[in-house]
Amino acid sequence: MSFDDPVFGPIMSRVEFEEEDLVEEDPEHVVVHRPTYPTLADVDEGLTEDIEERGLASTIDYNAVQTYPQRPTFEAKPLPLRYETQCVAFDPCKSDPNHPSSMPIYQTATFVQPSIERFGPYDYTRSGNPTRTAVEQLLAGLEGAHAAFSFNTGMAALAAITRLCDAGDEIICGDDIYGGMHRLLSRIVKRYGIKVHFVNLSDADAVAEVLNDHTRIVHCESPSNPLMRITDLRRLSAQLKAFSSRIVLSVDSTMMSPYWMQPLRLGADIVVHSATKFLLGHSDTMAGFVCTSTPELSSAIAFVQNAEGTACSPFDCWLILRGLKTLCIRQDRAEENAQKVVAFLANHPIVREVYYASYCPPDASGKRLEAQRIHLGQARSGGAVLSFTTGSVRLSRKICDAVHLFKITVSFGSCNSLIEMPCVLSHASIPAEMRTLPEDLLRLSIGIEHYEDLIADLEQAFHAALPGKDVSRKKSS
User: Fold this and answer.
1) In this predicted structure, what is the pLDDT of residue 40?
2) What is the pLDDT of residue 439?
3) Catalytic residue among 277, 330, 333, 443
4) Is 183 a catalytic residue?
5) 336 and 205 in one domain?
6) Residue 87 in contact with residue 142, Cβ under 8 Å?
7) What's the number of domains the chain is made of?
């Protein structure tokens, strides 16, 4: 190609000129002037690090680099924000020169660095991504945590906390936990020389019997899934800390979400969420979170997240950010509906027993009254998940098959109302001899439909399950 070419000549001349401008020659070497890119660290005063302080790329210990975000602050707002406002008004884009009103999806695997000797805040999405940082910062603030870490599923988040254990350590876990966690602990974690005890964590004496010098993690759900068993988190935390400062109290708070309960404020060290449920709220993707209370736990979980490559994708992080904006109004409506459904079931002759965190039948024993008192002392709500028994596995199966609005599926926390039989679906992985659940148990996840339509759907399902029987009258008092 010739520089005399009437079409390409001017272009080639400009390229040659720009190359001369970028390259300087001296007797020793050739210096190429690379363009520099502004980074978030450059924009945010106080975060810029000098090349000499950070050193060359070859001297950086990636294992020592903290990739997790610090909890968000609202320094620009003089008054503390209420929870509902935080969910919507959180601004993750303060440093973006384009000032987007909604967090963009940084759908990229890698990030270009300013030079070989100086790095920007991100290099590889497995280790960090702006969209992921945004949702982790928001959830850390909502949970009152030092830091939060997103994972690609709730099970990945649960698996991450078990990495705090070494061979020879022991885990104490509730005996009516989610079936997936039971499977993880009993069939995988045990392979690595870690002993697991399944006990009733609401019983302080049962916990004391298995506590020992090897105990590393105590993991619980409150309310538990699906029997709504309540654990006094303040009491359990005090019991563990009095025994050993080494023990980590982990709470799966998926049933409540940070809107209804914040276990870190009750003495927990770690909070786990399956974001697939209430946080997302639309049953359209899977994700999980681990929220930590101390820098030491944050560093440990950050290392696991990066080393195992289980972080949430940018697009899924964006979906969570979108879901969190409506978290409060969704949960308020779902709770209101759940209260109405509980009242309906509690007075229906086909129902034997109703399990709901804040519900206590009129003839309840002192133990159940105490559980209700404990729950309402540590949570704002009874939630939107409940379960009930019918006294017959066959009848429960018929009810499942007869509903129309309620969808037969695992999971909970969706905008739509869901129904399942835990012993058949969500907890089927637990061997029958180890399950502490009634075989006829039905679990309902109440959505945001009109409550009268939900009750009507259950009523017609009861009639369909027992044709020719009068099942519409109320229980006699």
Assistant:
1) 42
2) 87
3) 277
4) no
5) no
6) yes
7) 3
Are residues 298 and 282 part of one domain? yes
* 202 falls within a domain: yes
Short-list 161, 175, 168, CA closest to 193: 168
470 within a domain of the structure (yes/no): no
Q: Indicate which residue of 252, 269, 440, 457 is catalytic.
A: 252
Q: Which of 106, 122, 178, 359 is catalytic?
A: 178
Domain housing 27:
1-33
Q: What's the confidence (pLDDT) of residue 94?
A: 77
| 242 contact partners, CB below 8 Å, separation of at least 6 | none
The one-letter amino acid code at 329 reads I
366: pLDDT strictly greater than 90: no
Checking if the pLDDT of 50 tops 90, the result is no
Q: Is residue 142 part of a domain?
A: yes
- β-strand pairing of 407-408 with 353-355: unpaired
User: Residue 457: is its pLDDT beyond 70?
Assistant: yes
Q: Is the pLDDT of residue 167 over 60?
A: yes
Establish if 102 belongs to a structural domain.
yes
Residue written as token pair 């993690």 = 217
Residues 268 and 373 placed together within one structural domain of the fold: no
Structure tokens at 446: 């109440």
Query: CA of 401: how far to CAs of 94, 373, 404, 455, 461, in Å?
Result: 51, 36, 8, 16, 8
> Do residues 69 and 127 lie in contact, with contact meaning Cβ atoms separated by under 8 Å?
no
Q: Catalytic site residue 277?
A: yes
**Is 340 a residue of the active site?**
no
Specify whether 304 is located in the same domain as 374.
no
Sign of the CA dihedral with 465 first, then 335, 251, and 270 last: positive
325, 359, 385 — which closes off a domain?
A: 325
For the chain, the average pLDDT equals 84
Q: Tell me phi and psi for residue 303, to 5 degrees.
A: -65, -45
10-17 average pLDDT score: 45
pTM, two decimals, is: 0.82
Catalytic residue flag (residue 126): yes
In this prediction, residue 277 carries a pLDDT of: 96
Residue 49 and residue 5 in one domain: no
